[in-house]
Amino acid sequence: MNYCSRFIAMIILACSLIACSSTQYALLDTVRLGFSSADDVTLTLDEVAASEFDLIYIQPDNAPRASMVLAKLEHGQHKWLSADHVMLVMEHGRIVRTLGLNNDLTYVSNTAADPLREKVVQDADAKWQRLTDWQYRQQSGYQLSSVFSQQQADITVFEQRFSTRLIREQVTVAQTNTTFENLFWFDESTGVLLQSRQQLAPHSPVFHITYISQAARLITANTASVKDSMGTL
Amino acid sequence: MMISVRTVLLAAIVMLSFRLAAAEPVVVVQIKADSELWHAYAEPPRLSQLLTLVPQPEQLYWPAAALYRQSSQIQQQQQELLTRLQRLEQHWQLRNHTQNVLVLQSLRQQVNNWQLAERQVVSIDYDLARIHKAANPRLDPGHYILRLAPRPDEVLFVGAIAEERALPHQNAASVHAYLSGLPALQQADPSWLYVVQANGHIAQVGRGYWNRQHQELQPGSQVFLPLHPRILPKEFRSLNQELVQLVAHRILP
């Protein structure tokens, strides 16, 4: 009887462990950060570097900065989750689907041809066309066309200066002939995406995103290599 | 100590396998995606459990994903509507009204061809089901069909029309933009139509010059063109409503 109850307890423990590892959403209860937080969320480099899960900062226009956690990386998609259960699905740093906003982006076509995947504008005439569908009033088939250009820009993350390739994307909506601009900052030497400024549609909120875990990894790696080179001196 | 735990473990495994062998599946799910998959569950699963079985979820168009439950009630409704349509057809046959008879024959044939099951009122979304408990219900016992596909490229027009017609989905276009691509709609209600969006949402949309509303169609949607009110004697006034309800439970080919 004693063994039996111990066995049951083991099973329960095992099941709870499986449940935790198979879904990382439980983490959010401990990371008390949200999309709807009242104040800017600020994390230190050490906190981000020590975090078991990847994090991003996201700041919608005129709203406090929040952080999101990488809940899933599957099928080439990064799925970022806020504490209030908003999800942004990204491919190569670009938002391709949202869940929990007041008008969700439900679909983006042709993501395989997105020039952002190359992290560099090789062709001055790089273009990209895709269709977008929306949840609100089932708006379907809005055609977005982009042209890209590239320049050098310096940005600062965690008080660290990065020399970046800034990719500017000029987006035109065919049906309304309205335009907006998306910006993506890639670290010059590694090609790692550090920051972006994205809009899903004209007149929709602008999201300023900082890929803080990526930045923290670059800073930590640099510090380590500097230490290494100092050791050899 | 070690031996005892192992013994208990073995016993548990045997008990478990015995249970599995003896248990009748309470939920059977037929997943209609690129290929067809069948799954049986001894305990009612949650929606997310079904969705994890789907091979390439990132290629699917979630707004058009649908879960249906086999139901004899829906089949019965279909039979009743077929009988009612036949009675209405006879009504106009007696009055020698060929146009009305023809549209009713077409409608009866359409309804007869529909594959129907009870569409479940829940958003089917791989990610949503894993974030929100409300979007991840436990399935009641029964036989289910889960229909998943990449973004469809057509919309379907049914109802008071010579025959069911699929038209290519038009980007950012209101439902009215499609109507010129259809044969004459003299037997259809000139004031209203119904949109059954791919996500199951039904909307009555004004189509007269006086009440026209902008309503776009999700790819994979159906548009039900109701019968003209002059075709519907008093006891058939609710027929359009009953038909559109059935359209919403249709499993598209």
| Average of pLDDT of chain A | 83
Q: Helix tally of chain B?
A: 7
Order of helices and strands of chain B: HEEHEHHEHEEEHEEEH
In round numbers, the mean pLDDT of chain B is 91
Coarse morphology of chain A: globular
Q: What's the assembly state of these chains?
A: heterodimer
Order of helices and strands of chain A: HHEEEEEEEEEEEEH
Low-confidence segments of chain B, given as residue ranges, are 1-21
CATH superfamily of chain A: YmcC-like
Major sheet of chain B: 5 strands, mixed
Question: Roughly how many Å apart are the termini of chain A?
Answer: 67 Å
CATH class of the largest domain in chain B: Alpha Beta
Would you state the CATH class of chain A?
Mainly Beta
CATH architecture of the largest domain in chain B: Roll
Largest sheet strand order of chain B = 2-1-5-3-4
Instruction: Provide the CATH architecture of chain A.
Output: Beta Barrel
- Protein chain pair with the most extensive contact, residues per chain: A-B, 35 and 32 residues
